[in-house]
Design goal:
Layout (H helix, E strand, L loop, with lengths): L4 H10 L7 H13 L2 H17 L1 E2 L6 E2 L5 H4 L4 E8 L2 H8 L5 E5 L17 H9 L5 E4 L5 H16 L3 E3 L16 H9 L5
Parallel strand pairs: 3-4, 3-5, 5-6
Antiparallel strand pairs: 1-2
The chain binds zinc ion.
Zinc ion binds next to helix 4.
Length: 197
Amino acid sequence: MRLALSLENLIDNLQKLPTIGPKTAQRLALYILKMPEAEARNLAAAILEARDRIKPCIECGMLCDTERCNICEDDQRDSSTICVVGETSDVMAIERTGYRGRYFVLNKDFHVMDDNALDGLNLKLFSDRLAGGAVREVVLALNPDIDGEIMSRYLAGVTNKFGVRVTRPAHGLPVGGNIEYADEITLRRALEGRREF
Ligand SMILES: [Zn+2]
């Protein structure tokens, strides 16, 4: 049996979203079709409006609807520390810890196996901020996977050239976890971040 073309099209498009497999896409498509018309139109309009209005902050790269984001605009922030993260959602997570420094958001999925891994990363913007002289510490808070590790090493190299200190969060072992089952990167970094007992 073939699905109606427009339904198939909706499912195909939903399936392009991360973590959405064919079954979930089908379920979401059918759910959307059962929504009241006004709600479905609001959803479509919200996607288009966000797509049009949201852009990377010209200073830190965080997604926002103004030229500079509210963190870059906030002069109470500590400009001597920059925390480098992969995505705007990571900024939100770090904000919840009470961090009061500034950010640099890469905004790009990078894969080390990809020859063009560095293309599209605004590294000139990053170097310019270090060249400004106010930055004393760069905290590399990229995801602790292979891609994040290699990118961190690269950014540490760039940062070192400016004589700026490079740190990263001491990724600990998960509470309730088992050392035997911790992956190598987590365990190595937990050991690196060890403190006085
Ligand atoms: Zn900003």
